[in-house]
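Run log, item B.
One chain of 482 residues. Sequence copied directly from the ordering sheet:
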Amino acid sequence: MLDLLVIGGGITGAGVARIAARNGLTVAVLERGDLMSGASSASSHMLHGGLRYLEHGRFGLVREALEERAAVARMAPHLARPRRFLVPVYRDGRFGAWTLRAGLLLYDFLAGGRGLAPHAYVARKEVLSLEPGLAKDGLRGAGLYSDAVMDDGRIGIAVARDASMHGAQVHTYTECIGARPVQGGGFEVIAHDVLEGGERTFQARVLVNATGPWTDNVRTRLSNALRPGAPDPVPMLRPSRGVHLVYPGLTNGHGLLLASPIDGRVFFVVPFEGRSLVGTTEVEVASPAPPNAAVPTIEEIRYLRESLARVLPAHANDAPLAVIGGVRPLVAAAGQIGRASREHAIRDEDGVITITGGKYTTFRVMASDVLRAVLARLGQANRSVIDSEDPLPLEPGAGSEPEAIIRHAIDVSFARRIEDVVRRRTPWWLDADRGRGAASRTADVMARHFGWDAERRSTELQSYETLLFEEERLLHRSREAS
């Protein structure tokens, strides 16, 4: 019997498995899709403290996140790099010069000795020399500060690899479909192989629900299985959808923190792999979340395009290359969704420990807190939790042959489908052809490895093409609606 079974293979579940395995517990992870295939590969791609959270007085969260920004950047320097961000100040805009300076000073102070290059304030002329594409009307100056830009999916997969290297079992495309108590304590979970069919069972003393925006769905399913007749649990979440657009590079290398001229909401332009990510939106969705909760709407795409056009007018007619949608697992609270807390919450419901909320940057803190709850449930509450900043496992280096990269993704990084390789283990999805050429190469290697026949290879390629078609159709419809 395992010590714990983690349901959910996003950054939170992978982080829990990593620290549990490093502390000598037996652990398995079940993920119904690919690792990081939800919100964990649909973020703003930033390791950051959350400068805008200072507006809401969340100083403790920002300090904690800045500590973790430094730690995770040290663990994965090949996937997280420092970047300077500009915060333009406009006449009658959201950011006043003195308020911004105070906020940036506090941000640097909270980072302590773990800070990157310190903040500065520059006048209008220098702002336009740094980023001449910014709207000029009313521009007064800008703040400069530092954060880190990361590859969210690849860092998360490296965390899962670290867990595996310390003994954790990682099962992708394996969906939990049932559970029952085991005599003497613990649980038996029935899981279905989504790709190949068939079922298998796992026994564990403790279950960890780390399913992000689907937290309440899984809590309800487990409650119905383990406590038949009991009322459904009260939802823990108030999720929101965030959408990003991907453009060709829009800046001279800086990130931008901007206020939308439409409604004053903060959004970012983040340089990533030679492209620019523009986002994000915040639209509340139901919990339990419906299957299409992460699908962007035309209205969200238009909002981002129009906001960008007003602050970078030279790019008003640029067409986005891609659109990304994800659902944030925000802890339920009253008030406006945009002010919802980014802290995490843990609940132990008779040995089913649920972790939800939080920020990608603080995944190690969340994992440590979960492990303490697991140890308490195992009767080891006084045991210390030990974490490490050891480097995360490396990928094939730059310049490696595509086949070597694909084989590495299959052999040690848990890839089972074409999308897994092209979208979450490489930057190939950002190629001009959106990874279509890479998908064909990946199909050849996977067909040989998994024994796919011609029909299965064609089906897998068509599945990837369908994803791109739906995305491109949505972008086209948003342009027609403009």
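Observations after the first pass:
- Residues 80-149+243-337 form a domain with the D-Amino Acid Oxidase; Chain A, domain 2 fold (CATH 3.30.9.10).
- The first strand starts at residue 2 and ends at 7.
Flagged for discussion on Thursday.
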